[in-house]
Amino acid sequence: MMGTAVDTGEIIIILSDDDDEEDCEEDISYSDPSVLIVEVEDMKKSDCVVSPSALDEDLVITFSRRAEVLPHARYDCPLHAFTATECEISAPAAGNQLMCDQCFCYICDKLASSCQVWCCCGVCHCNSHKRSDFWNNLRNCSLLGGLQPFNLTLSEIDSHLRHADTMLQSFKQGLSAKFSAFVKGQTLEQCGLDPSNQRSLVFDYMPVYEFVSSFLNKADKQEGRAAAIMRLGAAEDFVRHFQAFGTYISQSPHANAFECIPVLLQRVIVSVRRQMVMTDLTPEFIHKLQDFYRRLNFPAELKSVKNGLCVRPWDDVLLVSVLKGQNVTGVRKGKGKKDHLIEQSSIVLLRTELLQRQHRYRELCRYLRVVESDDSQHRLQQVRDLIPFFMCMDGTLTGGLHSLFPSVNAPALRFTPHLFLFYLRLFKTATAPEVVVSQSAELCLSDAAWQPIKDAVPLPHVVLVRFALRVQRCCSAVFTDSQCWTSLLTVVNTLAAVPEPSPQFLHEAKVVVESILLDQHGSNIQIPRFFQEVYPDQALLLLVTGALYSRILSAALSPAVPVLKTFTDNMWALRWLWDRLSSSPVRLISFGQEISHEAANMTV
Length: 604
Hints:
The chain is mainly alpha-helical. Helix content is 47%, strand content 8%. The strands form 6 sheets. A 3-stranded antiparallel sheet has the order 1-2-3, with no helix packed on it. It has a 3-stranded mixed sheet with strand order 4-5-6, with no helix packed on it. A 3-stranded mixed sheet has the order 7-8-9. Helix 11 runs parallel beside helix 13 (377-384).
């Protein structure tokens, strides 16, 4: 790059010096794009004088201006030297009291000129700096206020947490006054009782209980992190309360502190647990909440809930591997120890709820198969019984059906008639209500509209029949219920009448149907292929009719008329049933009487 001075006060800079010197002389002009004219400010000639030795340098500084000073902590001031001390508070260290216009107080986080204790003996904020634990702790205490016990950093604090801290400090003051009044007690006269014994006092914890409950109600309305801080901050105070013993304890509800404190604490635990599982709290924030809770000073009677907030975060290594299907045992080995996926039943229910809302049914099934509970096996079993439903909601109806009949502890063993009808409709139509449930009974209580299940296909009739007969085999409640028989017969008695098969087939069907129903080898219902080759629909109808025959022989069937009406379009199958019943004339007569009596009652 070459430059030349012009008398007009301009500097002409030639951007290219690759051409020959002669070419430059011919081509240089003010209009040439390779020439840049830069206007410069008037300056004193003495400012532009460059020594001959400097002209030989590649870079020459001909002008400089003092940089603008930005806001900074006092210990970083470029104008005044700072003397660092560990915890000097008696007087300013050498020169530390000096400040410029942009110096900030490290403790107050505001301009040093606004600090009220900049040079005060015993405080001396002018000596503060970030390389001292003493001053860092003092800064955190000043800026974090009541949030400091939660080990939060300043970067985590927002307006919601500031507001929560303000509300929490006000609550603590009010709670202290309420508890002091409780410990002091009230005279009998103040309580409207017989004041004959002037020394007797009445102790009623109810005002304290109501005050805490009111604050927890306010916490319920706050943003996620703020609500958790308020709940645990309140618990820190009321868990230290005790019952004041005197002559009388009020008979009003929540009068006894020993009874109220566990109730309040359980409310806090349940609410914070739900936040940890159901909301978007970060794992780091959750860990800080857990640390704070573990440091609470629990009395002996509350030691059992000291681990009440031990909740695995969603990014836990073992939990993630289980959800992804990479771990099917729920056990992880590492560093000579085994980590078992064991969670409280309440946590299992929360995860189940969230995964349902997120439609992560496949991951939910993986989780429920391996998770263990350390407090309620019965509650865990109720949730596990929903695995077939969750598999169906994932679009795998066949897999859902098979999961109803595992070799051990099959969910079908605990079927109710309503639950059987629910699954029969689901398998038949490939539809289901979009509900969030925690036990199988809730499936039958929902009023939600049934919607098609994504990627699901209705199961064939032969599969539906095998399903129904398997349930009847293991669940007496379904076997005896009339409505279950009506629904099953509706499946095989199609809308269009099926032709009557040959007499030979009807005769041979008696033996085949009986062998199928009496076969107890294996849990599945095996239907021979030859039985369905010629008359597939008729074979299924006769198989179910044969099962109905066994049901009628076992006990009275009521109501029976709706069941028999399903044969309206296939009277030949009803005649086949009557022919089977003729082998037991006594039962046939009594069954006829039951039908007549039922029909008579229907006409009345």
